[in-house]
Amino acid sequence: MKTKNLEVLFHEQLKDIYYAERKILRALPKMARGAQSSELRAAFEKHEEETQGHVERLQQVFDLIGKPTRGKTCPAIDGIIEEGEEALQAFAGSPALDASLVAAAQAVEHYEIARYGTLCRWAQVMGLKEAVKLLEQTLKEESMTDEALTQIADGSVNQTALQAA
Q1: DSSP state, 73?
Q2: Cα three-residue angle 126-19-109, rounded to 5 degrees
Q3: Which contacts (CB < 8 Å, 24+ apart) does range 127-132 have?
């Protein structure tokens, strides 16, 4: 049996986030279609394009460590996405729909930020300089998406949801 060291842990987390990114790619178009705000819809569409880049970068990291590109089921992201789909249905047509979509999207972003932050640190410890660059680029984009969602929420979405009371 192979020793469970940081390299094994890194590979397992890489498979986890790869699965998550591919699952997110399937969820983003639904969120974009459901958004009432054109600004929020555009943010989801932009992030879908970025997420395709995240998947491609992860494929490069798999190549760098000499492992096949494949994911493993991630119950955490499955649950977060399921909550988002429930919110989409529960708040459909209501003034709070976009606020619920922002909340769901930020839950996804925070999960990704946590995973990429950890992977970056582990790649640094293992001396995987090219992997660090790729992972840090994605981490930066995830953080920027989270900030953009906050600005959309603060700009109009939360007030729209509140005024409907």
Answers
A1: -
A2: 85
A3: 128/61, 128/64, 128/65, 130/60, 130/64, 131/61, 131/64, 131/65
Closest CA to 36 of 103, 87, 97: 97
Taking the C-alpha atoms of residue 87 and residue 82, their distance in angstroms, rounded to an integer, is 9
What gap in Å lies between CA 50 and CA 155, rounded to an integer?
23
Cβ atoms of 160 and 98 closer than 8 Å: yes
Beta carbons within 8 Å of 129's beta carbon, 6+ residues apart: none
Tokens for 66, please give them: 């000499």
> pLDDT tens, 29-79?
999 999 999 999 999 999 999 999 999 999 999 999 999 999 999 999 999
pLDDT at 164: 64
Round to whole Å and give the CA distance between 133 and 137.
6
- Cα 52 to Cα 61: distance, rounded to the nearest angstrom: 15
The whole-angstrom separation of Cα 134 and Cα 14 is 12
Of 164, 120, 121, 112, the C-alpha closest to 143 is 112
* C-beta neighbour count of 45 within 10 angstroms: 14
C-alpha span between 131 and 146 (Å, rounded) = 23
